[in-house]
Design goal:
By secondary structure, this protein is of the alpha+beta class. It has twelve helices and 22 strands. The strands form five sheets. Strands 6-5-15-16-17-14-18 form a seven-stranded mixed β-sheet, sandwiched between helices. Strands 8-2-1-12-21-20 form a six-stranded mixed β-sheet. Strand 16 and strand 17 form a beta hairpin. The longest helix has 30 residues. Bound molecules: flavin-adenine dinucleotide (FAD).
Length: about 400
């Protein structure tokens, strides 16, 4: 039998934690199952876009996140040979958001802030070492089975939200297809605690550097500069993660007489995939379990947070205000096309622009970026796009 106004969430990543907090604040009982024994020290995402900060502000999270992050209003497009192409300032979108900047803060900071807040809500049962493995549903409830060190357990609730990341168990059990593709190359993230501005004084904390051989996404997090670059498919992981090789990558971006301190390096496989549906009965998919995209533009976690908030709004309407379950289909209609038409399209375009090999097309692209900077209307439109405000507005307009 279903518990009264109860939602089970699998996955205490950024999306699961945020959604759990939002439901808890609406007085809904939440069981949050996390497979690992503690929160992951996950440094993948380090950019929070303005609408995400606006949403997290309503939950009381943004001030703590800002205190651990780096406010970054400007971002640049650069060319490895020619240097700066254009610098944009998100101050231009201040009529559309309370946070007209990107906040650079690693995703683990968000999950930790929220995990510290959840004990304030006694109706939240947050379990570590709890790996969801199976689910069954009927017209009135969903039962989730999960493995714990003490054996197999189960919990029955009104709805289940799968926020369990790219390997999503619910998607597989429910036979929800996940079409798309995997890039042949791995992406390397290499970080240094040294100050890159000593070598390249005008490098902004967020910069996208075009290059036909090795494009770069530069992200400055509070404690380090991070560089994301593609790798060659014929290199082994050991060759790529070799310290001399890593050093040579940073030297190629910011040449210096000094040797760089390498503080962190990781290789990531990169996918572009969207689940064929975000809803099956009483189960909703959100975040990486619903969609994967390349990290250029920082839209994976942010898009996932926007899913989670949208899904939680619908569940609150249904559970607290007696709204129709048709709202769950609206969740799918509002969020899935955004992943397909906006996030997938934009992230693939971002990669293509950075790695363009044809010099004439590269020059044309650079001219377009400069022309956009010179035209206030076009410039505003670009910033509404890259900050994901357009995607939220588009999603809200779907009925
Ligand atoms: C190099 C790189 C850089 C990136 N940078 C950005 C960026 O700047 N901005 C951005 O928006 N996005 C970025 N992303 C994407 C971002 O990291 C992901 O989109 C984000 O982590 C998704 O959050 P999530 O909560 O959906 O899933 P995850 O963060 O994957 O969390 C899933 C959680 O579920 C748990 N879990 C898994 N299976 C189960 C189970 N069966 N039962 C219970 N728990 C389970 C896991 O242990 C984990 O804690 C980047 C990705 C990469 C690879």
């Amino acid at each position: 039998m279903a518990n009264s106004r109860h939602v089970v969430i699998a996955g205490a990543g950024p999306v699961g934690c945020t959604t759990a907090l939002m439901l808890a604040q609406a007085d809904i009982k939440v069981t949050l199952l996390e497979a690992e024994s503690e929160l992951l020290l996950d440094m993948r995402a380090s950019t929070f876009h303005p609408p995400s900060l606006d949403m997290l502000e309503k939950l009381g999270v943004t001030p703590a996140l800002i205190s651990q992050g780096l406010i970054t209003p400007q971002f640049q497009y650069r060319d490895r040979l020619d240097g700066l192409i254009a610098e944009f300032d998100l101050a231009a979108i201040s009529d559309h958001t309370n946070h007209p900047y990107r906040l650079q803060a690693e995703q683990y900071k968000l999950t930790r802030i929220i995990a510290d807040m959840l004990p304030d809500y006694p109706h939240v049962d947050f379990q570590y070492n709890a790996r969801a493995t199976d689910l069954k549903q009927n017209d009135s409830s969903v039962t989730v089975h999960y493995e714990t060190p003490d054996g197999r357990q189960s919990v029955t609730a009104d709805y289940f939200l799968a926020c369990d990341g790219s390997n999503g168990f619910a998607r597989k059990i429910l036979n929800i297809d996940f079409p798309g593709f995997t890039f042949p190359e791995l992406f390397l993230v290499v970080s240094t605690t040294d100050d890159i501005n000593e070598a390249v004084p005008d490098m902004c904390p967020v910069a996208y550097i075009m290059d036909p051989e090795e494009w770069v996404a530069v992200i400055r997090a509070p404690e380090m500069w991070r560089f994301m670059i593609p790798t060659k498919p014929d290199m082994s992981d050991e060759e790529i993660l070799d310290l001399d090789f890593l050093e040579s990558r940073i030297q190629g971006i910011a040449p210096s007489d000094k040797k760089y301190t390498i503080s962190h390096s990781t290789l990531y496989p990169v996918n572009q995939r969207v689940a064929e549906t975000y809803r099956k009965g009483r189960v909703l998919l959100a975040g990486d379990s619903a969609h994967l995209n390349n990290p250029l533009g920082g839209m994976g976690m942010n898009g996932g947070l926007h899913d989670g908030v949208n899904a939680a709004e619908k569940l609150i309407q249904i559970l607290n205000h007696g709204a129709s379950e048709d709202l769950l289909d609206l969740y799918d209609r509002q969020r899935r096309p955004i992943a397909v038409e906006y996030v997938q399209a934009q992230s693939i375009r971002n990669k293509k622009n950075l790695e363009e090999k044809d010099p004439a097309v590269r020059k044309q692209r650079q001219d377009e970026i400069r022309a956009t900077l010179d035209d206030p209307q076009k410039s505003l439109e670009l910033m509404m796009q890259v900050s994901m405000i357009n995607s939220i507005n588009k999603s809200k307009a779907i009925q």
